[in-house]
Amino acid sequence: MTHPPLILTGGPAVGKSVTARALAEGRPRCAFIDVDDVRQFVVTGAAAPWEGKEGREQQRLGVTNACGLARNFLAMGIEVVVADVLTPETCDLYRRELPGCLIVHMTLGLPEAMRRAASRKIWLTDDEFRMLHEADAANPPDADHRIQVDALNVQNQTEKVARLWAEGR
């Protein structure tokens, strides 16, 4: 049984990428798309989503490109898990570009996010990290499911999202 495209979102260090990769690895035919990687295709002139009009345009382009990849995989019968930080605007774009997708918003308190971030390479400044975390909490996307992950390890987090994915909406 194939599952709908799954979009994992949440603030920095919530575990989107590690959970998405683990879910993809547990399926017979599944692709993992990290939208941060897609955005990094822009080598010169890249702008972060919070860097004005150009940043927002590149953010939308990253979503559009990720959705194109996802549609190509889906057309070949390959399931898709996407990791991205969604805003209400990009959430709407995913819903338009990937009809039937399932969006799971993972939330995490700032102290736990900072603890998790300390264990890996972070490409954000401390101010950017806090700003993204606070923006996600203040203006969350219209997700199908929300899960609090502070007390979950990666395995528990992955199992919980897998159950939601299997159930669909």
From TrEMBL:
Domain of life: Bacteria
SUPFAM superfamilies noted in UniProt: P-loop containing nucleoside triphosphate hydrolases
Protein name: Shikimate kinase
Species of provenance: Kribbella steppae
Taxonomic placement: Bacteria, Bacillati, Actinomycetota, Actinomycetes, Propionibacteriales
